Amino acid sequence: MSRLTHNLNSAYIEAMNRLGSKHGRQRIVAYVESYDDVFFWRTLLQPLETDGVFFEVMLPSQTSLGKGKKVALANELGNRLGRCMIACVDADYDYLMQGATPTSEVVCGSPYVLHTYVYAIENYFCYAPALQQVCVGATLNDRRIFDFEGFLAAWSETVWPLFVWNIWCYRFNHYKQFSMVDFARIVRPEDVSLFHPEQAIEKVRHQVNAKVSRLQKQFPEGRKTYKPLMEELKALGLTPQTTYLYMRGHDLMEGVAGPLLEKVCELLRREREREIQRLAEHPTQMQNELAGYRHATAPVAEMLRKHLAYTDCPRYRQVQQAARKLTEALANVASAQTAQQGTEVGGKEAHGNGQQDDAKELAQEVDG
Questions:
Q1: How far is residue 86 from each of residues 43, 54, 90, 314, measured CA to CA in Å?
Q2: Alpha-carbon 7 to chain mean position
């Protein structure tokens, strides 16, 4: 079995597709990194399925992809990818490295590796225009009491200069002097007031400016390379207002979006409960209504991971477009094969049997 798994590749899946019905759907196996990624990638890929192509999202059993994307893509899975077997991974900083590391070269260069473009799926969960819907799902209260989009845009602009420095340190192998952890610690907004969020942003601005000044002194060579890097990042689609999409996803969820959502949702819940208390005609009705309301609401962390309001994010659409190219390529190959079979004069049956024999022979060879 281990030998079969080791030799399972795109050509094998394509051969198995050919063994099926001539008009059957072509299967594309999509390997993801972990259990948490299965639902995200299934949601992204399903709208691209057609009468001729479908995806099967799964974990790469007996490989290390679930434990480490970099090792798996570089050594184990990468050579086996193709039209019928793809890898779906978080971009991390690999997209921004643009081939500066071996893993980045695979992530950015292979047409059979789909990546998120933003740092990770958690960044999509925190997509600013979607956060109001998270609040509604968690509290069943649709009143807008906080401008998530305005806050995250302003906060992102504030931390953008330091974010570019963080990428610079990873590009030029100085990440030990200024890591993602260091960046997250400096830019984390503390004690955000829902009514005066600019105060928290101003504190972050002070910390960012101080760190940028220290980095400029520590790395004087950055004077020549910092600005070109900033322009390169902008050319890749990054903007100062969307920096939050490209920082480490867990830091964004746990240090920025999560605490903010908890504050907003707590206010909205208390507001709804006071409304129930005010409208109840007697204590029993009040207790029943409060119990029903609390049972119907959901934890913020759960809603943040399960909502789908981020699917209109431009970067998300970009990932889908890359996946659509794969389905179209496979459909074109299948159509060409069918047309070729149909135009073989005097040997249609023999050609079809020969093709099936080839597929069986390949399958038998992989099976060992």
A1: 16, 13, 13, 22
A2: 28
Report which of 239, 232, 248 is spatially closest to residue 116, judged by C-alpha positions.
248
Domain-by-domain residue ranges, the chain? Answer: 2-121+316-367, 128-311
The pTM of this model reads 0.85
Q: Tell me how far CA of residue 245 lies from CA of 15, 220, 258, in angstroms.
A: 39, 28, 14
Please report the DSSP string for 108-141 in residue order: HH-TTEEE-SSS-HHHHHT-GGGHHHHHHHHHS-
pLDDT in tens, 163-214: 999 999 999 999 999 999 999 999 999 999 999 999 999 999 999 999 999 9
Beta-carbon contacts of residue 59 (< 8 Å; ≥ 6 apart): 31, 32, 34, 35, 38, 65, 66
Amino acid residing at 95: Y
Give the three-state DSSP class for 54.
strand
First-last CA distance in the chain: 9
CA 324 to chain centre: 16
Q: Strands, DSSP E only, in 45-96?
A: 53-58, 85-89
Is residue 87 within 8 Å of 31, Cβ to Cβ?
A: yes
Burial class (CB in 10 A: 0-12, 13-18, 19+), 123: buried
117 by Cβ neighbours in 10 Å (0-12 / 13-18 / 19+) ranks as: buried
**Rounded (5°) CA angle 330-333-334:** 85
State the residue for tokens 């933003």.
Answer: 118
